[in-house]
Amino acid sequence: MEHVVEIVASQEQKLSQTGTCFETVSKGIRESLGKMEHIQQQSGVLDEARNQMMNMITSLSAISEENAAASEETASSTAQLNERVKQMTKEAAVLKELAADLESQVGMFKMQ
Description:
By secondary structure, the chain is mainly alpha-helical. Helices cover 96% and strands 0% of the residues. The chain is rod-shaped. The chain starts with a helix and ends with a helix. The relative contact order is 0.03.
C-alpha cells in the first residue's frame, strides 16, 4: 500500500508540474495573441499609409502629365509667335522699301 501512496504522490507532483507548464504555455499563447493583434492593427495602419501614398503618386503623375501637355502647348505657341514675328519683320522691310520709293517719287514733284 505504501508503494501505491508513493505512486499517487508522484502522480500528484507530476500533475502539478503539468499544470504549471500548462499555465506557462497558456500565458505565452495569450501574449502571442496580443502581439498578433498589435501586428494586425499596425498592418492596417501601414496599409492605409500605402493607399495614401499610392493616391499621392497617382495625383503627381496626373499633374506631371498636365504640365507636359501645357509645356507642349507653350512651345507650339512660341513657335507660331516666332513665325509671325519673322513674317512681320519681312513685311516691315517691304513697307520700308515702299516708303523710300514713295519718298523719292514725291521728291521729284517738290518745287524749289
